[in-house]
Amino acid sequence: MTDYLAAAMAMLGPAQNRHADPVAWDRLHAELGIQLPRDYRILVDAFAPIQINGHLYLSHPATERWNLGQDIRGKIQAWSDVPWDDLDLDADEDPRQLFGLDELSFGTRNGLWPIASTDRGETIFLLAGTNAPRLLVNYDETWAEHRMSFAEWLYRYLVGEDMTGPNSAAFYPGPVQLRRLPMSADERPEPWYGPDRGM
């Protein structure tokens, strides 16, 4: 069985751990009322705040800019403001019907938690309150479900699988490109690359 955390880390390269702070995670978990998955925390600590392959953004709970807690709260508010019951959604557009959800809530113990996003308008949600990992991804009016860990999702995303919906692959051959997100208005971080992947 593949160790997807190790496989994803191997593609991204040595962990940076620039902002790793267990206290920041403890504060965030106390504030949210849920525990974010261990593999997700390891990847965020290793690299975030970061942009991966020009599209995928990961924030960190210990930084002032690109703060994960602020990002989650802001997206929860935006998604909660959508009048889901008033929308005339087709069955393939309604996540309640698609994934057998009793209700659609954001930031609740059994709801959806936005944990990553892309510059293409995709949002990756953790579905809380489930025994096995479940990720739901939204892009425009399309939803996709992945019953897998975040590390497996990231690995499959990076090798070019359709991980945000049909025909959504964002594959770039060669090493994975990583770019730190600027921590001040005048900072312009240069990208760097993970190890050769033979792709």
UniProtKB/TrEMBL annotation:
This is SMI1/KNR4 family protein. It comes from Streptomyces yanii. InterPro entries: Knr4/Smi1-like_sf.
